[in-house]
Amino acid sequence: MRWITLDLQYFAADEKTEEATPKKQKDTRNKGQVPKSQDVNTGFLLLMVFGGLYLLGGQLKNAMKNMYSKSFQEYIHWELTTDNVATVFLEATAEMAMVMAPIMGIAMIAGISSNLLQVGILFTGEPLKFDLKKLDPIKGAKRIFSARALVELVKSLLKISVVGVITFTIIWANKDQMMLMSQKSVEVALVFFGNITILMGLASGLALLLLSTIDYVYQRYDHEKNIRMSKKDVKDEHKNMEGDPQIKSKIKEKQRQMSAARMMSEVPDADVVITNPTHFAIAIKYNEEKSDAPLVVAKGVDFIAQKIKEVAKANDVMMVENRSLARALYQESEIDQPIDEQFFKAVAEILAYVYRLEKKV
């Protein structure tokens, strides 16, 4: 029974029930794993491209018309030589590039804009790295028959159905006019069918963009679900960010030891050590060239105080007993900092006494 309880606790701790932490979200984003809907790109691309065709359709028609006119009025009379064929090829390619450049530019802007709207600015090479796990046939089969794959199938069927219904409706609504185009001029027929095509494209793009809103919400939900963390993951991350308590304790202890060693090295140069006499010890040094007030070069209580007094005694630094002053200096002063103004008079009297004894003045 005990083992069953432990197993249940283990599985409960390992269950992904917690929302991803900001650090986990940032790490996941740096790996290129972000919520994104391809339908947003498709719908935005269709709207932009067909909108561009609607606005630039007249210019594109004139450019293509001039190209065909030149082909049948000028190129057809040229002799069939290598130079002439190369010239025709180059000029035709340049004309086609001029015709397609605006549309391709709009498509590129649409693709970049739709990605920026969803993902923002993100540069990472993680998705391009070679990973043998992606070639695992078992995992590949699991992906094919997974719930996500079923959702993608339903989405694809829905998109095909929606686009099919839209295009059929537009064609059916204009079927009578289509039949009459056989009696119209070529130019009129081209304008009509061009407008119908643009209308179908814009309507399909708008429909896909509306569907993509639902898809993006689902992709975001699925992404957040996939990056959820267990309670153990959250604790481990917190521990890694703040450091292991034992390691932090050892680091602090080492820092205290280094600080104490550095502090002890200043005691031999002190002018006086003010003591409690047993619990506190404050080492004072006055150097008028560095500071207008005396400095506390070392201070300690109990064991550290005893060490300060031992070092002072070994280096012939005078010690003066003043219980209240030692306690107050320990509480109110910082190492390597001038003493507070309230202690000036008392410390000055002690320094004067020490200087007289050492015949410094």
Automatic annotation (TrEMBL):
Keywords tagged on the record: Bacterial flagellum biogenesis, Bacterial flagellum protein export, Cell membrane, Cell projection, Cilium, Flagellum, Membrane, Protein transport, Transmembrane, Transmembrane helix, Transport
Annotated localization: Cell membrane
Membrane topology: Multi-pass membrane protein
SUPFAM superfamilies named among the record's database cross-references: EscU C-terminal domain-like
Taxonomy, superkingdom: Bacteria
Claim: Transmembrane is one of the keywords in the record: yes
Transmembrane segments: 40-57, 99-124, 145-172, 192-218
Family: Belongs to the type III secretion exporter family.
PANTHER family: FLAGELLAR BIOSYNTHETIC PROTEIN FLHB
The protein's name: Flagellar biosynthetic protein FlhB
Native source organism of the sequence: Halobacillus seohaensis
